[in-house]
Amino acid sequence: MTTNEWVIPFYRKQFEWLRDIESDMTSYLQKDAEKIEEQIGIKFKTMLDIGAGIGSIARALDIRGISMTTLELVPDLVEASRLRSPETIDIHMGDFYTYTFSTQFDVVSYFDGFGIGSDNDQLALLKRMRSWMKDDGFALIDIYNPNYWRTIAAGHKMKIDDAERIYSFDEENCRMIDSWWHNKNPDDVVTQSLCCYAVDEISAMCEKAGLTITGIFPGGAMDFDKWAYTETAPLSSCLSYRIKLRKTI
Known about the structure:
Blueprint lengths: L6 H12 L7 H15 L5 E5 L5 H7 L4 E6 L2 H10 L5 E4 L11 E6 L8 H14 E12 L1 H8 L3 E4 L2 E8 L4 E8 L2 E11 L3 H10 L2 E8 L2 E3 L4 E3 L9 E8 L2
Parallel strand pairs: 1-2, 1-4, 2-3, 4-5
Antiparallel strand pairs: 5-13, 6-7, 7-8, 8-9, 10-13, 11-12
């Protein structure tokens, strides 16, 4: 089992076009770190973040005294993470479908990226995340909400720095489609495709993996008519929601 072919080209280009954006996100990242601690609800010491990108959230949690381990596939992002991160963060490069760890963690997270492969791929990943959790540990995963991508985002364009993007929705496969290009080269398009799940669908998949949802936290949403972003939207209309998981007893 390997990660979809689009993953490395997409995230490499996204990083290239947005490489200076993190400096503008310090306050947001600290708020997100606080939110993660609130969502877990108890003190925890160790955390594994997969699909960790350039390690932004790991650094925000490291400052708060959490012993962070990261796993990322794209070499460019891993290199950037190593350049920007303190030695206290344990950084790994590899595919989360095949990579192994010799230890377990209090928390295992996957933010802003779940849904890369097929349903079977997602189920296999959930089982792997379960194996990385301590018996009394938790997982936090962001799940894309099909209603938002189907009825709100599809067809809309956005500009970010020198890049542009357009959203669409694959109804047959229930996947959000996010296509990017540089404004100087609009024919060179990279696209990510992530499967979206309603709460009952992801709950059933988690049960098959031996995991139980113990918390649901709605995320934000973009109002394209007002061109305004709301940090917390209703579950029915948020772009993604975060689930908190424990091992099924």
